[in-house]
Amino acid sequence: ETGVTQTPRHLVMGMTNKKSLKCEQHLGHNAMYWYKQSAKKPLELMFVYSLEERVENNSVPSRFSPECPNSSHLFLHLHTLQPEDSALYLCASSRDRGGGQETQYFGPGTRLLVL
Amino acid sequence: GNSVTQTEGPVTLSEEAFLTINCTYTATGYPSLFWYVQYPGEGLQLLLKATKADDKGSNKGFEATYRKETTSFHLEKGSVQVSDSAVYFCALKGSQGNLIFGKGTKLSVKP
Asked: A31 in contact with B at a CB cutoff of 8 Å?
């Protein structure tokens, strides 16, 4: 049990659908992250939030829209996705964003399939 | 820029064999280094870490030593078990606090 939960665990959506991924951390951390894990590619950082403020957006397409209403919850809103967006989306949290020794704790991920 | 290169899998071993998964990095300075493991159908779990040169991280029989002279952080285990079958990721902590991962190495251990 890592203290980071994600729902749903699996999601199938059409290209015209709108859906949201949810992440919740029970660790009292101040920083949260979205990563994308595609087949045969390294894990890619998508978004970083620190104290509910977005501090990094790695040139992610606007069809992905993050939301962090408080330090325990993180959402990823999805709309008009493409089949190449099918991947495992991982949420992580850490005590703080900076600091070389900070460990990030990951959730189990949401397996997304876009048809 | 920062990057991580690790053994390209898959790696298949028999139970009780010795495991080495190589990891080398390119970075400015001396970043913290991590090994994460991903079991089938699950997210990433921290396996071990080292925050400065010559540190040795260890957990569950796995070890890795931070070698600044060779910019390496190779993962080793003396005797693998079937339950060690998973994907292993080497990562470094970037200057912005984000993790930069290698591509992952899939390990399969046969009885």
From this structure: yes
Check A106 against B44: CB less than 8 A apart.
Answer: yes
User: DSSP letter string over chain A?
Assistant: --SEEEE-SEEEE-TT-EEEEEEEE-S--SEEEEEEE-TTS--EEEEEEETTEEEEE-S--TTEEEEEEETTEEEEEEES--GGG-EEEEEEEES-S--TTPPPEE---EEEEE-
Q: Does A2 contact B93 at a Cβ distance shorter than 8 Å?
A: no
Say if A90 is an interface residue toward chain B (CB within 8 Å): yes
pLDDT per residue as tens digits for the range B53-90: 999 999 999 999 999 999 999 999 999 999 999 999 99
